[in-house]
UniProtKB/TrEMBL annotation:
A Pfam family matched in the record: STAS
InterPro entries, A to Z: STAS_dom, STAS_dom_sf
Top-rank lineage group of the source organism: Bacteria
Protein name: STAS domain-containing protein
Ranges where the STAS domain occurs: 17-95
Length: 127
């Protein structure tokens, strides 16, 4: 299972959003690279929804280590996916490592209290 797509963005120096879904160690990993903002959040959300549907009872890990910007639309998409995962009784795990573009918005909005925030992919795949 591998999906790779790009959303074209206006020329602003920011890389386009890329999303890759793959099966790894019994989980579905959604690896995201680029800016998650109003223009790209629908693609981000669709990828997480697709992973949650494909995962059945398996865990879903959203790897945000390659994200260069996480705006409010991206946070909203994470909230929606976390609620879906909770209904499945398999919480959404996100990987932020030391990504300074992702950690502050998650911490400031206190989403780190409702999401399972992992510091590396191995941790997210084993907890």
């Amino acid at each position: 299972m591998s999906e790779h797509a790009e959303v074209r963005r206006p020329p602003s120096g920011e890389p386009p959003l890329t999303v890759e879904m793959r099966a790894q160690r019994g989980a579905i990993v959604v690896a995201v690279r680029g800016a998650v903002d109003t223009l790209t959040a629908p693609r981000f959300s669709a990828a997480m929804n697709g992973a949650l549907h494909a995962a059945a009872a398996r865990r879903v890990v959203v790897d945000l280590r390659g994200v260069t910007h996480l705006g409010s639309a991206g946070l909203t998409a994470l909230d929606h996916a976390a609620r879906q995962a909770k209904r499945r009784r398999e919480p959404l795990r996100i990987v932020v490592e030391h990504n300074q573009c992702v950690r502050p918005p998650i911490q400031i909005t206190e989403r780190d209290e409702v999401l399972i925030v992992c510091h590396d992919l191995d941790e997210a795949l084993t907890i």
